[in-house]
Fold this sequence. Notes:
Elements: H1 2-16, E1 23-32, E2 44-49, E3 54-58, H2 60-66, E4 70-76, E5 82-92, E6 98-108, E7 113-120, E8 128-138
Antiparallel strand pairs: 1-2, 1-8, 2-3, 3-4, 4-5, 5-6, 6-7, 7-8
Amino acid sequence: MIKKLSFATGLFFALTNTAMADLTIYDCTPYNIEKQYGWISERIIVIVDEETKSASVLDGYIQYVHKEPIAVSYSELKNGKFRVQWSVSGIPVRGNAKGSASWSATVSPSKAEMQVRATVAGFDNRPRGHGKCEVSREQ
């Protein structure tokens, strides 16, 4: 999955580098606290356009369904952190059944850390994780 994520991220930058001037990329590897439930990808890439204050995300579920990063909700928080939120539908859950889930991730740029939680339609569990991010800048 990591090779696919790397390829998709490279492809995304090749296609959009001229449209987005000042990008910060957070390549995060959250630890899934409730690993038995899944739903927290081993790798989540958050791409923030500093100029427009917008973001895109790529994780394993987005890669499976959309094959490329998707635009997500982006909001800056008072403490220097920011939050991204996204949803994915069409995720295989059992047999031929498809499910949907929503994620909310808070990123601390100063600490290079992420906290993420998922809400899965039709399930009571609330998977969550946290971990470090590798931060890089593209101009």
